[in-house]
Amino acid sequence: MREAIIASMPCDYNTVSQALNSPIPDGKAIWYLKQMTHHMAADDDLTWAKTHRNAFLIRDPRAVVASYAAKRENPTDFDIGIKRQVEVFQAICQITGTRPPVIDSAQVLHNPKAALSALCAAMDVPFDDAMLSWSAGKRATDGIWAAHWYGVVEGSTAFAPSKPLPAPMPDELEALAEDSRAAYEHMSQYCLEVS
Predict the structure, then answer these.
(1) pLDDT class for 4, splitting at 50, 70, 90?
(2) Residue 160 in contact with residue 109, Cβ under 8 Å?
(3) Which terminus in the chain has less CB density within 10 A, N or C?
(4) Domain residue limits, the chain
């Protein structure tokens, strides 16, 4: 989908980083911006994030690798981005002078209301029970890649209980997950307390 994705949006770094600090569209109070580590090169200037309220979502490396392997042949460290996430986290801490909240997807799936309430409190955003469910189907905000990645989400209407970690994977995938374990555990130490 590379060509279709590139054609669907601006790809110039300066244009994009300036847009990230433009006024919130449509007079809304909150503008959620999902960033992915494989979209952030090591030498990218992340100072555009200084005025944002940042939060980090983490996930067990074995679950990340299994998810990528189901959709992409031979995922790499760059694809799964867990080590890069630590670098971005440290950069954001330095740029903003504060440590952003971290939440693990397992916390969200175990107790969505408690996890999202904790995250909202940390972000100074009012919690609303409407955050716990949604209508099935496609969303214009999902992006062109939704056709490849979001089938399960499009068919859902609420958070589903977490699934057990995958059964043993091929050796190269297990090694990829294990190689990111220390970075994941580093981020885990900053997870919000969820009751």
Answers:
(1) confident
(2) yes
(3) C
(4) 2-188
For residue 172 the two structure tokens come to 């190269």
Assess whether pLDDT exceeds 90 at residue 189.
yes
**What pLDDT, in 10s, does the model give residues 12-53?**
888 998 888 899 988 899 999 999 898 888 899 999 999 999
pLDDT for 129-178, tens place per residue? 999 999 999 988 888 888 878 888 899 999 998 888 878 999 999 999 99
Instruction: Give the CA distances from residue 48 to residues 13, 45, 88, 96, 182, in Å, rounded to whole numbers and listed in that order.
Output: 11, 8, 13, 10, 28
The one-letter code for the residue type at 45 is: D
- pTM here is 0.92
105-142 in b/e burial notation, b at 16+ Cβ within 10 A?
Answer: bbbbeeebeebbbbbbeeeebeeeeebeeeeeeeeeee
- How far apart are alpha carbons 106 and 108 in whole angstroms? 5
